Amino acid sequence: MSSQQYYNNSARHGEYQYVSLKDIINNFMLMNVGDDKIINDIPRYQVLHHAKRGIQELSYDALKETQKLEFELGSDLKIVMPEDFVQLVKASILDKYGRLHPLIKNTENAQPDAFLQDSDANYTFDDNGNRQETNSISNTRMSSSQLEVDVDALEDEHTGGRFGMDTASANKNGTYLVDKKAGFIKFSSHLTDGDIVILEYVSDGLFGTTDDQIKINKLAEDYMYSYLQTEILDRKFGVQEYIVRRYKKSTSAKLRNAKIKLMNINIDDLVQRLKGKNKWIK
Amino acid sequence: MINSVRNTVLSIIDKDNSGYISPLEFNLYAKAAQLEIFQEYFDNYRKAVSNKNNRRGSRGATDEVKDISHKLDIFTKKSNLTQVGSTNNYTLPSDMYMVNNVLCNTDIVEEVDKTEFYFLNQANLSSPSATYKVFTRFANEIEVSPTLLNTDVLSMVYYKTPADPKWTYLTTSGGDPIYNASASDHQDFELHPEEETQLIVKILRYAGVSIREENVIAVAENQDTKEFEKENLT
Questions:
Q1: A128 Cα distance to chain centroid
Q2: Are A16 and A212 in contact (CB under 8 A)?
Q3: What is the pLDDT of residue B179?
């Protein structure tokens, strides 16, 4: 590909940072599988499986490439989780100047399940003998539109005294609640209909891409080969334990190296950050 | 090579007026001998790889794995596969002996066994896709997953079954057959020229059984045993 082709094709901008899954699997099969290699034979579909698992683990652990989603809040103050959602990193509200104000996690609602009970508080069962589910009173009482952080948790929990602010929930921006079972993210009534919320969340690096579109950062490429070797050798019959251990150690070290490389610690950035540490508080 | 082999076989058999084998018989023995040697290539290849993995192989001109590969290259063919109706099945080439690779355009289509084939189609991470296709075999067809595009070309690299050798001849006025290499049904051996001695020994063995000449069988078998021992010397 010439420079001109690169600059004229927006789809290829920045692609040099990445190596595709297809390349990883091809390189692995070529360089690590064969008659005179430690892995003499392995079906490609197994390598594909481990490679995708490796990318998932890398996405959770080292890549730090969170997905960011902006959306406008409706009157019910909740949103359906994004379809590639694995874990929430941060939820923020956008102000009129384009600045982000972080929301804090609501830890005061257990979001329990509830089953139907009769007047004697016994469970009721359907024709198949299964308990019947109903809406939880807890969720109804603390429904998204009624969530408040103004209720003092300390006061509620330890009757009779209030000794200052509960700093863990001291945030005027509002709170969010991740309802994993129902697949919603709910927001407190500090937020209103029409507010712009930014979600940052971890995905697994695989969603919404076909096999030929999956790619990882080149700084993690070496780790991927090592990960594949370890996972395959670990499951192969008759491989000596010392060989498996050797590869496990190597993979662990390469994961650390990949994390360090991907952190992109730059001396200039570090100096700039440390400048703030010298500020005297008068 | 076929005429040279036949002449040698006849001259050995005729040495003590032991007997005579007709062109028809010769062709039958030649076919059996060629097939036997061809099938041995695969066993020998496995042994050679095993030896090499155990650091008992060599490189360069004496590389046994490479040597057998080259002998098998003679039988390596590539041809496009024909789709069976509008199914995901494709017909195998009629002269196929063993599959080497199946390609969709330039990508390898991986062979999996039937159980894996169905498991894979349900798998969330390793299910077959446009990039990673798989196939499984049924009699003289293969089933590919996922469905190919109309523009995709499915081809197969395979080892073909050796063509049956045929020593063709013209009959003289005296009734003797004279070699005729230009006959339309003439077929020489397809094996590597290095195999000529092996062919002679194996045809002699068949011929010895046919003419009930124990000496011929004994000599041929003795030669065969020596070859075997030489090949398996470690």
A1: 38
A2: no
A3: 87
Cβ-based neighbours of A101, under 8 Å, separated by 6 or more: A92, A93, A94, A95, A173
| Chain B: closest CA distance from residue A117 (Å) | 39
User: A73: closest CA among A180, A171, A181, A184?
Assistant: A184
Strand-pairing partners, residue A100, are A94
Nearest residue, CB atoms, B125 vs list A35, A43, A49: A49
User: How far apart are alpha carbons B156 and A281 in whole angstroms?
Assistant: 76
Buried b (16+ CB within 10 A) or exposed e, B87-125: eebbebbeebbebeebbbeebebbbbeeebbeebeeeee
Distance (Å) from the alpha carbon of B63 to chain A's nearest alpha carbon:
14
With beta carbons less than 8 A apart as the criterion, state whether B23 and B185 touch.
no
Partner-chain residue, chosen from B52, B126, B130, that has the shortest CB–CB distance to A45: B126
CB-based contact A53 B132, cutoff 8 Å: no
Task: Indicate which of B55, B65, B118, B125 best probes the interface with A, i.e. most A CBs within 10 Å of its own CB.
Answer: B125
Q: What is the pLDDT of residues A151-165, one digit of tens each?
A: 555 555 555 555 666
Taking 50 as the threshold, does the pLDDT of residue A145 lie above it?
A: no
Reduced 3-state DSSP string for A124-168:
CECCCCCECEECCHHHHHCCHHHCCCCCCHHHHHCCCCCCCCCHH
Q: What is the pLDDT along chain B (234 residues), one digit of tens a residue?
A: 888 988 888 888 776 555 678 888 889 999 999 999 999 899 988 888 888 888 777 777 778 888 888 889 999 999 999 999 889 999 999 999 999 999 999 999 999 999 999 999 999 888 999 889 999 999 899 999 999 998 999 999 999 999 999 998 888 777 778 888 888 999 999 888 888 888 888 888 888 765 556 666 677 677 777 777 776 665
pLDDT of residue B212: 59
Model ipTM over 0.85:
no
Burial class (CB within 10 angstroms; exposed 0-12, middle 13-18, buried 19+) of A200: middle
Residues of chain B with Cβ-Cβ distance to A211 below 8 Å are: 129-132
Render pLDDT for B179-225 as a digit per residue (tens, 0 to 9): 888 889 999 998 888 888 888 888 888 887 655 566 666 776 777 77
Between chain A and chain B, the number of residue pairs with CB atoms below 8 A apart is 44
